[in-house]
Amino acid sequence: MKTIKYIAFYSLLASAFFTSCTSSDDNLDTEPPVVDLIAPADGAKLEAGKDIHFDMNVSDNVALATYNVDIHGNFDGHGHGDGNHTHSITVLAGDHTHDAENEARKEFKFNETWDDIYGKKNDNVHHHKIIIAADAKRGNYHFAVKVLDKAGNQTMVFRNIEIVDPGHGDGGDHSHHH
Amino acid sequence: MRISLVVFSLLLTIQSFAQAFSVRGHVSDIYGSALVGSTIQLGSQAVATDLDGNFLIPSVEGGEYVLAITYIGYESVNQKVFVNNNLDLHFHLKEDTTLLDQVVISSEGVQSIKNAEKVSNQKLIEQYAGSLAKTLEYVPGVNAMEIGAGSSKPIIRGLGFNRLAVAENGAKQEGQQWGADHGLEIDAFSTEEVEVIKGVGTIEYGSDAIAGVIKINNEKVPEVHSFNGSATLFGKTVNDSYGASVQLKAREDKFFFKVKATAQEYGDYRVPTEEIYYLGTIIPIYEGRMKNTAGKNVSLYGQVGYIDGSVKNVLSVSNVYEKSGFFPGAHGLPNITTVVHDGNHRNIGLPHQNVNHFKVTNNFTYDLTGKSKLNALFSFQNNKRQEKSIFHSHFENQTPPINDPNLELEFNLNTFDAAFKYEYLSDNNHKSVIGLQYTYQNNTIDGYGFLLPKFNRFVVGAFAIHEHYVNEQLTWEAGVRADYAEIHIKPFYDEVLYDYLIAKGHSHNFAADYAQRSHQTDRDFTSFNAMLGAKYAYTDKVKFAATIGTNFRFPTAIELASNGVHHGAFRHEKGNPNLDPEQGLAFDFRASYVGKNFKTTFSPYAYYFTNYIFLKPSGKFSVLPDSGQIYEYTQSEALITGFEWSVEQRFLESFAFKGVLEYIYNKQLMNGKSGNYPLPFTPPVNFYGELRHSFNDWKVFKRTELFVNGKWYAEQQRIAQGESITPSSYSFGAGVSSTIRLGNVEAKANLSATNIFNAKILNHMSFYRPLEIPELGRSIQLTIQVPF
Question: What's the total number of domains in chain B?
Fold first, then answer.
């Protein structure tokens, strides 16, 4: 039958397409690094004026490149009431944010990139290089770690942390999971 | 084929003259559009209408004859004619609705060279899936990128955004189509007819019409002395949406009017998952519903038309408004507290977007001589999109604006179009079209965030197309086009960012460099394009068509000059002011077999781009908070190839099966050592199958149909950088449709279910894919349309 002839013809064409196209892909790396951020833990209370215990295991299927630590305030949702507070980004509102002394303090900001993991397939990063300013505004912060591999694939891990008065911290290893 | 004999209207103009008589005439449909190639039989003589719908039988002896006019898909005319004069006859043929309602449609009377598929309003309403682009997904080669449950943007052959054109009544839709969270601002209910043209539409539509053109025709002329309309009610369970649409149209003799209004409201949509995983955080989904994805839209449409012999003018005004919420748990950094259920699934809190698209078009057509036609189009569009979220600057020195403190981003785009087209039909079935198009755009911005600078832009284009209808078997077409464009991008200096960086201890130079979010950029571009196409009917049943041509796209302001973090994409995207116009070469082929009960179409295609513009990870971290690394716009060679294959088979009288297989392969070429990655948002291999059964009329239920369908997606392993592998999925649907006749009223009802097994499906083309948010859960929807 004519129909069958055409079906056969199309199927052949189709299979030719499949075989010609699925061959030879370059060695592409789309796999991002794997990051196991051990410290600080989520919800960690870190003391102003002290260094942060930073500990993570990183690995990549090809090669790691750089990592970045970014710490910034998460005080949003305060001070401009508009009746929409159910949507405000307020996490674990600290007690410190409203006293006058704390209001005068400056937000602690940290943003630094390191490349000592460059070229490695896996590594443990452990240091105390991040020092919280003594006059850092107390309250909630985001602690974000971004790791890139050589191909530019990125993994981001973040923690909600709190900067507290000296003596009130938990060392940063306190586990606070859901 | 059953032929019923109805003449809709017959107008005779009798002129007195001598012995030898000629019979000439014009055949059109009831709206006045010429029916090309219809057969006219008068006694023993037979002729066909030309490209303008005219026919001429030069020499007829006086006497009485039977005149028969036939045209596929239309009811035939059989009429006694007494020839005692030169006759000029005008026929309006009525569409053969019994034929059109059958499952396997063979309504393509004249197959076009373009790879086009027409979708009627009726079909759109039957298949309605919440938004226009999503509804068009059943057309082979079309996919939709959904932004929640109520808005979506189209993708053809894996190309979307600015790589396809949407044109309504001839004017290209200009919104914020560069954005992943932008949906097409066109109301599906008020759309009279959609033509999906796959493959290059560059010659007629210019820049952007690379993957295809979604051509919306809302200028169908109502029948003479008519007043009718319809009311449609719509409801859907997945997001508790309900909507209504009213359409009215009236025509006296020369004037016609249309009024259409649609409103829809929906709540948070249901997903078959209890949690999602985003940036290392498990975000719970309360009550199985995506918090704050509710929305609403209202669209209004008015039209006044005038038609008198050779003059036709249609003025349309429309406004589409949409407000829809974004899932707050993943707007920026993951946040668990914001997703807690607030007791209301229908409120739209922050973050959300407001989109308003206002459009006026005026189309004037003048038939100069019956062989030549002039068309002038003027249109004005205003697209205003606002993204609102709680003022959340990371810069403590930035205070919330006094007015509208939660306005994060606003883009206000005005577009003015003027287009002229002249068509000329010469002897021996040649048709020539020349056109001139002008577009001016102006974009202004507002909000406390920065993403896209202010700009203005203009484009002038001229084109010529020549078509030759050689014979019934062969038609060929050739076209050329030239374009010139200028874009002027305004600088933007971000003082807040400067102060922030200085406060962090950066140098003046470093801070000033970053704070200059955009630079004054003045670019001009030119592009020359050409295409060649032909269709060939090998037999009545076997037909081929092919086109080869170049295509282009001028870089957008976002590609040239964006510089900022967009929470939707969650990365710092940086424009490149040195980009060239994207230039490509495309080949499109189509083979079809149309038998009595079996129909199949196979269409392979290939695109080659000399410089495909894409976002490339730079490996450098941005100093902007919450941004990750910088992605820069860059260009490289790329290849896209694939095919669509559709099969329709009728069996056992009342059953019909339809299957569509799509395959796309693409990758960058010659991208150096950074690697030839696949392109983003590429649909995986997929198959859609549908089985329909039509019942005999029973009591009040007429034309009842039962259908089941299934869609399968293969795993998408070929991913662009920053994407994740999307697993294979399948989903099933079923439904019943019927026309219920109660007295004089015929109500069309459609009850259908999608994702029956409530499967958890990730869609590689979804805006929410990176957040691991699955597709909509099980949904039952009902549509009732009552014509009057």
Answer: 2
